[in-house]
Known about the structure:
The protein has about 45 residues and is of the alpha+beta class. About 20% of the residues lie in helices and about 25% in strands. The chain has one domain. The protein has 1 helix and 4 strands. The strands form 2 sheets. A two-stranded antiparallel ribbon has the order 1-4. It has a two-stranded antiparallel ribbon with strand order 2-3. The protein is elongated, with a radius of gyration of 14 Å. The mean pLDDT is about 90.
Amino acid sequence: LRLGARVCGPPAHDPDFNVADFFVLLDIHSVDERYVKFFLGAQ
């Protein structure tokens, strides 16, 4: 969530893994450049 991602609604139960899944949306054009460099390296 520090990257600017948004949780888009309530969790959904995943019975196969017995966990809660969240739909998360991340606009890659609004991510801070320091995170882009960290995850993707120098571009």
